[in-house]
Structures are given as structure tokens and as C-alpha cells.
Amino acid sequence: MSASRVCALSALEQDTALRVEVDGVPIAVVLDSAGEVHAIGDVCTHGDISLSDGFVDGDTLECWAHGSAFSLRTGKPLNLPAYEPVPVYAVTIDGDDVLIDPTVTKEA
């Protein structure tokens, strides 16, 4: 599979997560305060909650329901109650297009 356009770069708000779905895979896309775009699995591994409804702080995304924060770079949980990581996807920027392939995960 090749990468799919998920949104326009100009549509992303800094320090806010946007939920997208590519071939049935829910993904949270985040433009962090440093201007880097990240894509991680949108489902909290603790409570089956959408992470894109959570809070962005630096390079972390915190689940609004139980407070588990996940690294946007590695997908690893940084605190309990979550202890399983979420997938992290490679992001390609082509002009104003944000492209993600949900079959290709980044190595931590």
C-alpha cells in the first residue's frame, strides 16, 4: 500500500490532535509546538478511548479519560495506567499534503 493523503498541512492546528482514518485504521495526527507532524494510533491502549480528544503537551499526547500520556515519537506510554504502546506511523509532507501509510510504522 502507498501513503494516503489524510489532510492539508495548513489545516492542522498547533498542539492539537486531529483524528483521521486510513483504510479503517484510526490515527491521531499532531502538529507539535516545534512544527513537526506526528501520527500515532488514535486508540488508547488502556481504555479504548480516542487519543485525538486528548491534550498535546510538547511531544506527548495525553488521554483525556485516564491521563496516560504517550510519546508522539515512540508511541510508548510515559505513565500509568497505560503500559502498552500505540503504533507510530511515518509521515510524509508533500507541499501542503500530509501523507500517511498505516501499514508502515516507525521504529522507536
Automatic annotation (TrEMBL):
Residues 4-100 form the Rieske domain. It comes from the Bacteria. InterPro entries: Rieske_2Fe-2S, Rieske_2Fe-2S_sf. Keywords: 2Fe-2S, Dioxygenase, Iron, Iron-sulfur, Metal-binding, Oxidoreductase. The keyword Metal-binding applies. Gene3D superfamilies: Rieske [2Fe-2S] iron-sulphur domain. It holds the Pfam family Rieske. One of its GO terms (molecular function) is dioxygenase activity. This is 3-phenylpropionate/cinnamic acid dioxygenase ferredoxin subunit. It comes from Microbacterium lemovicicum. The gene is hcaC.
